[in-house]
Design goal:
Layout (H helix, E strand, L loop, with lengths): L15 H32 L8 H10 L1 H23 L2 H8 L1 H14 L5 H18 L6
Length: about 140
């Protein structure tokens, strides 16, 4: 556990270039991660829902050999690498709230690409998430 009094923890002032590069990594991570989720959902719509009675091993093997699933997982892995690069440049307390943009983009993508229904309650939930992310990040540059 890392605490503020931990002598091993180093606080460093980040340059404008580090912050800019970190935000670039974060922006690309968000887009790649959203694409991964949408590609995986499309693959699952095509492959069909898992049926426990039909045998899970056959279903897993089908997924493991599916080009779209492999592509989605590759995008997801690329997004994780970008996230790690982002964290090397930005504070987690800044990157994570901005990363919630993924929720919005996936929400809109699911509606647009898959005709998923957006109820007033779901829309309200999305707005609450956005408001919370905004509140968490507004004063991060004031130190």
């Amino acid at each position: 556990m890392i605490s503020k009094t931990n002598p091993k923890r180093s606080y460093r002032v980040r340059s404008r270039a580090d912050i800019t590069l970190g935000l670039l990594y974060l922006g690309v991570d968000i887009l790649v991660s959203v694409a991964a989720q949408l590609v995986l959902k499309n693959a699952m719509l095509r492959l069909g829902a898992f049926d426990a009675g039909a045998g899970w091993l056959n279903y897993v093997a089908t997924m493991a050999l599916d080009v779209e699933v492999i592509g989605g997982l590759s995008l997801y892995g690329s997004g994780m690498i970008l996230w790690i690069l982002c964290l090397s440049k930005l504070d987690l307390s800044l990157a994570y709230p901005i990363g919630t943009l993924q929720y919005i983009l996936i929400f809109v993508g699911a509606w647009w690409l898959f005709d998923e229904q957006i109820s007033p309650l779901r829309l309200t939930g999305m707005l609450v998430i956005c408001l919370g992310a905004f509140i968490m990040s507004v004063d991060l540059h004031k130190k």
